[in-house]
User: Fold these one by one.
Assistant:
Number 1:
Amino acid sequence: MGFLRQIINVNCIINKPRMSNKATYKIDALDCKILNELQTNGRLTNLKLAEKINLSPAPTLKRVRKLYSKGVIDGIHAVVSRSYFGYNYRCYVIFTITKYHYTELVSELVKHPRITSIFRLKERQMESKGIRIQCLLESKNFDQFKAQYKQIAQNKDYLLNIEVINIAQTYKTNGSLMLNQQ
């Protein structure tokens, strides 16, 4: 149990905030339908998508291209089965660090091959000891996890606290953000 409390924050993708195009592009009901359909099945052909939203193919394609160009759609990608490749041991690791070492730790976590997401957490009330970074570290087994944890945690005097949360079972990942017209 003592070892687990020392585990360091892992796995990350950092999305830098994009300049908002909200002022220049208003999402309407058809755009919401397109986004909902593509989130459900990103492999839809333009013809099938047009049928599903009751619009002809040419304007449908024009709208999809506009959604890409305005940054509303970041991309469409495959979700690879982690268990197929044996990555069945998943843990959230939460690091509390001094603000002066934030960039250093995040830069290292982003490069780590088994860290799949990284988040900066909001400060808790009455807690301002440091910055909290949460990552998801994926391993094949506990021994691999320990080795990865040691690699990340070693020689980091600026770590104020490390918390590890083991994931017992995953019910939903990469869920769709179902949209309604605002």
Number 2:
Amino acid sequence: MPQAVMEINKLNDAEQVRKRTKLMLGAPQVNEDELEEIAKMQERGQSSMEDDGNAATRTLMGDYTDRTPSLAGRTPMRTPKSEGDMLRLEAQNLIALTEGETPLKGGLNTPLHDSDFTGATPKQRPAQTPNPIATPMRTVGGTPGRGGITPVLHTGSRGGATPGATPLRDQLGLNEDPEAAMRSREQSRALKDGLSALPSAKNQYEIMQPELPAENLSAGPEMEEDAADIEEREAKNMRAREKQAMKERSTPLKRKLPRPLSCEEESVISNSKSQANDPEYLLEKEMFEMVQDDGVRFPMRSSGVNQAEDPSYVLKSKSCLPHYTPEELTLASNMLKEELVDILQTKEVTKEDDAKLWEECYQNLIFLPEKGYILKQQLTDEQLREADKNVYKELKEQMTKDAKKANKMEKKLQTLTAGYYKRAQQLIQEIQSMHTEQETKSQELACFQALQAQEACALPARLAALTEDVEAAKKRESQLQQYFKEKMDTLSELKKA
């Protein structure tokens, strides 16, 4: 059974059915002897160029090696490899497309084999052996369709040369074309004649203003303003309104003066001055309304943020007092200053007297938790003791609070300046040690200076004593030498006798 299947496959195979024809090649244009002679000539030329001459003068010679792609010695052309079964290639393409990832992830596509969709079934591509004679070869400098074997000469070639002829290899430009100079002169003369025929230039200018079309501002739809520009403009307007609201606050709020926790009308307005047309009564009433308005809008709190310093809150809070323009407020302030100056001049009151009066008023008032500030003359001795106890208690609490706050700040300061403190201690120790060393060196210097002075005083006496000793030693030595000579003379006389 397997043999029968193989026989059927052989019968169905197109390559087995088709018979090979006899290979027919054209007659060779160059025989073996001529190829060997050309190779020998090429080897002799290369050896002469490499061996003869000096390396410095070798660059003066042109490269006359054969750049013509010869067919001798090359590997003969072969029949290209068949691509295989087209059904198998298409099956591989389908498997690759099925197992590949989605192209939505990006990256490279799945590599596929080339397909031919000209028919319902894949088309077989029979392999063919190329014909070197029928197909023109592309060579360096060659032109397809003109032989293709011998390159065309570009430099130094003459017009009308036969295509495919042996090129004239003249790289050094020794064989110049005699007609080149003539052609160059003809071209130069033709260029000069053409330039001379041109009309002369005229330096005439005329400046005309272009007619611009009238701008139509109403044409086209209006551009919508950017949201960022709108927000910036609104923020700028808000800051301006907040600044104006901060300016319109009362003077105690601007100067951050102390304010009462609560204000009663009886404590500000006197009972005796109850007439509606009395200026002092009107002034006290207006003052009470201002204090009450500030207390309602910005109540006093023991802790937390001061609302009177928040621009956004000041802008939102509305005053119940009548609104006055800046010009009216400026006019009233000037009038008040003039009246104050008049009072100071007429009654001879100075700023020191004002401070003294304030101190007297403060000393005559005393604070009670139930009633607030009351004159001392209106209180009994028991109430005064209770008031003093309250003041002492408040001062003690304030001192305790300040002490805790100071301790916290001291700990925070120690945490922040621990490194600086450590470095300062090191520098103090170094300074102390250097100071001690400096004092020691100063004492040693003083001692050596005193010793130098003593040595300077005693040096002449020592030199005189040493000089006397040296003179005495020389004199003693001369006497001993003379005595020794006498003894030697005596000894010589005794030996002779």
Number 3:
Amino acid sequence: MNFSATLICPIGDPERNRISKFQVDNGELGSDGISLVLAQNVCTWEGFEINGVNVTGSVMTGFGPSYQNGLWSAEGYDFGLLANGDRYLAKWSEKGDRTAVRGSWKLLMGTGSIAGITGEAKFEERAPQPGDTSVRATVTGWYILRAGNPQP
């Protein structure tokens, strides 16, 4: 099943967005300096259904290097929740600069009516700018349910 949806993640909300940044290089590795960033966001979805059930939220947890020149990369996991209580686990990776973020997302597993789910997607968003309170990613992809999964 093909899908296109919007993932909305907060910026600067201490209840829904946690970031830790650790300076790991002062320029000795040939760049202006590297920080390792660990982040967790409680995000929401618009227009995303799996097997006819709304995906209500995701806890995105990831880490990666951030460079002084504005480039970064990250990878992590998306623990998603559907309106009926089913859950999924996906892995994501992204690369970004001061203008845009692009990445991929891969469904690894699900529970209940989405047990055995597989799928992949690409996403793109405008990079966060000063004053932004959230980022909105356009996510486009597909998923397949294991034969015999119950309908909601």
